[in-house]
Amino acid sequence: MSFYYLSSCQTLYSSLLVDLIEKSSSMDIVSLSFDELSSIDETSEDIFLILDLKNQTDKKYKHYLSVINKRKLRFKEILFNVSRSNISKDIMKYPNVVGAFYETDNIDVISQGVKKIMGGEMWLTREMTKEIIFSYRKKQNGILSTSISLTVREKEILKLLSLGASNIDIANELFVSENTVKTHLYNIFKKLNVKNRLQAMMWAKGFDFKEDFL
User: Fold this and answer.
1) 10-residue mean pLDDT series, the chain (214 residues)
2) For a designed S-S bond to 123, which of 29, 58, 99, 201 qualifies (C-beta 3.0 to 4.6 A apart)?
């Protein structure tokens, strides 16, 4: 497990945030500029990328997407300084968000959230989840669960995913390997026409598994 902090520029806020996350996670955090992003080598361990949205620009966002798509990098993204007036836009444009924090969140909230994320959980407030679900349903434009053909195993995994379970949690619950879970998730994403686990979770939360799936 490793942590990187990606920011447009070094500020007092970014220095204090890095210090807080290091204390909460007991991990060393490497600060990177956008130009240094391509220097990260993908490994089998989890790579958490902390993104400060405060000084984010479209140009830097496009550069970020270009690098991770070109090199097929799978960072676990933690977003800071999410705006309450732009929740779904701030969060949904990133492909693998595992946590998000408002610009007004205090030290205790950030510390608690980082610890939950390190434990394999997602950190999103109810308000964030509600906004994302509403936005995603609007984009889906009425796609029904009955039009999606999922296997029994895929339904089981999707249900666990909707409850916030990590890949390891799902593997332990279903007595399969983590690689098997990843393969099923890939197939689920493809069938649901979603890009990541957050979108799949949002898709699943709008349906009754008892009636529509099992």
Assistant:
1) 76 78 82 76 76 80 81 83 81 85 88 86 84 68 58 89 86 92 90 80 67 46
2) 99
Question: CA 200 to CA 65: how far, in whole Å?
Answer: 20
Q: How far apart are CA 156 and CA 169, in angstroms?
A: 12
* Spatial distance between the Cα atoms of 210 and 207, rounded to a whole number of angstroms: 9
Torsion of Cα atoms, 122 then 125 then 128 then 132, to 10°: 40
Residue 148 neighbours by CB under 8 Å, 6+ apart:
191, 192
Q: How far apart are CA 66 and CA 60, in angstroms?
A: 10
φ/ψ region of 164 (left if φ > 0, alpha if ψ in -120 to 50, else beta) reads left
